[in-house]
Specification:
This protein has 263 residues and is mainly alpha-helical. Helix content is 75%, strand content 0%.
Length: 263
């Protein structure tokens, strides 16, 4: 497959993955009213393991799970864990409109960080577009009339670490096995968040177990899509906002077990 075809296929997979992941955000918002962020992440990752195993059973590659770029894999693993905690917390305490407005910074930060990490050349017109993008985020958020909280800081941290994680995949994705890029962050989430989840544990209702299972499936497919080869400029957040706007509050209530503020 040519590089152009690979980038096009990667873009389509990413659009599909992030479109599906918009439903994931809604479930996080619902569960965040009852359970701690650590418990939600822990069980959603735990439920993802069977999917990962089934997905990689046909893989006959004899390579082991040792990464070819251990430092980059370690940095990506840390950034992925931080992204999950920060994003889940932001979605649970902020209206989704505000969380999305701040996380719109992610593609802008990808462009900025691509210069030192990938050595990309960013022209003046792209810097102007990035600047306008940040201005757009401020216009949507309206900081003068919105009280900034730790939830807003968490959303910005999630955007930064998510951008870093995406760029590392771009840098080493052609040389690292997909299973390596998936399993290391998953094990790190279980090891780091397991004790915190146990400390803040609350009994999980049956319907919420179903929602956690849906989260696991959506998160798995989102992760699989985001690990496909893909060009730097990708409209990853727009499908999620379009789906959310099309569904609306009333449509979401038809498919969910609880009512919650969409924002």
């Amino acid at each position: 497959m040519s590089k152009t075809s690979a980038n096009r296929a990667g873009a389509l997979f990413a659009l599909l993955g992030f479109a599906l992941f918009s439903a994931h955000d809604v479930i996080v918002k619902m569960l965040g009213d009852t359970y701690s962020v650590f418990q939600i992440i822990f069980f959603s990752v735990l439920f993802s393991f069977p999917l990962v195993v089934l997905f990689h059973l046909p893989d006959r590659n004899e390579d082991n799970l040792m990464p070819h770029h251990p430092i980059w894999v370690f940095v990506r693993t840390c950034s992925t864990v931080i992204t999950a905690v920060a994003a889940f917390y932001a979605f649970s305490v902020l209206p989704l409109a505000q969380a999305y407005a701040l996380m719109f910074c992610m593609p802008l930060l990808i462009t900025v960080l691509a210069v030192p990490i990938l050595g990309e050349q960013v022209g003046a017109h792209r810097w102007a577009a990035v600047t306008l993008g940040f201005v757009g985020v401020l216009i949507v958020l309206r900081p003068a009339s919105t009280a900034l909280t730790i939830g807003h800081v968490a959303a910005l941290i999630a955007a930064f670490c998510g951008a870093l994680s995406s760029l590392i995949v771009r840098k080493i994705g052609n040389e690292e096995r997909t299973i390596v890029l998936m399993l290391y962050p998953m094990f790190a989430n279980l090891i780091v968040l397991g004790p915190l989840a146990a400390y803040s544990y609350a009994p999980i209702a049956l319907e919420d177990i179903v929602l956690l299972g849906c989260m696991a499936g959506l998160g798995f497919w989102r992760c699989s899509a985001s690990l496909k080869p893909i060009a730097l400029e990708r409209p990853r957040w727009w499908p999620r906002c379009i789906i959310r706007k099309c569904c609306g509050r009333r449509s979401m209530e038809l498919f969910c077990f609880k009512n919650f503020p969409i924002g």
